[in-house]
Amino acid sequence: MDTSSLFDAVVAPDVASQEAVLNALADARPVGAGLGRLGEVAAWISSCQGQVPPQPLARPRMIVFAGDHGIAAREVSALPAEASAQRAQRILEGSGPVNVLARSAGASISLVDVSLDHEAWGEQRVSRSSGAIDVEDAMSLEQFDRALDIGRAIADREVDSGADLLIPAELGVGSSTIAATIIGAFTRTEPVVVVGTGVGMSDQLWKNKVCVIRDAMFRVRTLLAEPTEVLRKASSPDFVALVGFLAQAAIRRTPVLLDGAAVSVAAYVAERLAPGARDWFWAGQLTPEPAQLIALQALELTPLLALDINAGQGVGALAALPLISAAAELVAEELSPA
Predict the structure, then answer these.
(1) CB 228 within 8 A of CB 59
(2) Domain extents for the chain?
(3) SS3 for 123-184, per residue?
(4) N or C: which end of the chain has fewer CB within 10 A?
């Protein structure tokens, strides 16, 4: 497939605004010159907004893409497969760490059930779980196209409704295995290097995960020049929706705060399919997952925090959001006329 036709061209953020903020901070002694990475964050927000000083973030919006994965049956996680639907229900009920942090940070949440393993259907639904990627394709071509369109449509919906910062997140047992497979395949990194220990993972679970990733990477080893085929065979519908969302957010000139491994790897793929998208991304926090670090290094993004939060669901990004918001307000006040 010719990937150049998948997305419109990405327009770069306003570099002049970014440089203007950085230069103004350097001259604003003693406070401005000592803001460090907070100043860099504010300058990035200015470049995305195309104005100096940056405006405070008024409507940060988190979108959680939920899906189950066939490889969960291979015992690659300490969590049972049914935990995906249980966690999704907690989010919908307004409970759990995601909602607590979102309320604290002033963000709203939307959950998108792309492919959880239950009987349901709707405009944002692709399938009931996905194929076990070590032995079969994750999805059909029709399902791939639908997932990509869903991600694009949700980005458009959120931007059109006034979101000024987007926070994509994932939810699903086995999502870190999908992320490790995809970044391992594209960067030709050995499975034992790209696999993390996960939450509560035993040595046996780690071995199972390595084997699944090894076999899945082998299945797509000759397709690396066809990124959409790699995704169709070795990712999942919720992951593809994430990729579509990230690429479209950049096309719509909206800043994005990245979360953990799955989101960071999806951002890496979005950059491949929509060159220039990375300029609209900022990494919130670093997890213990090697797949995330590999993806961020490839994107040349440095996380704002290193909290080792590995809960998924956007928890790490939400923990970083108050600093992002504070950076914009702090620099706006510092650069405003007395």
Answers:
(1) no
(2) 57-322
(3) CCCCCCCCCCCCCCCCCCHHHHHHHHHHHHHHHHHHHHCCCCEEEEEEECCCHHHHHHHHHH
(4) C
Q: How confident is the model at residue 78 (pLDDT cuts 50, 70, 90)?
A: confident
- Model confidence at 253, pLDDT cuts 50, 70, 90, reads very high
Of the candidates 148, 151, 225, which has an alpha carbon nearest to the alpha carbon of residue 140?
148
Averaged pLDDT of the chain: 92
Instruction: Give the containing element (helix H, strand E) for 8.
Output: none
End-to-end CA distance of the chain: 56
**Max Cα distance, the chain (Å):** 65
The whole-number pLDDT of residue 33 equals 60
Kindly list the distances between the CA atom of residue 255 and the CA atoms of 42, 70, 322, in Å, as whole numbers in the listed order.
Answer: 12, 32, 15
Amino acid residing at 300: E
Other beta carbons within 10 angstroms of residue 130's beta carbon come to 31
Task: Count CB neighbours of 142 within 10 A.
Answer: 10
Alpha carbons within 13 A on the beta-carbon side of 228: 19
Q: Determine whether domain 57-322 maps to CATH 3.40.50.10210.
A: yes
Q: Note the pTM of the prediction, 2 decimals.
A: 0.95
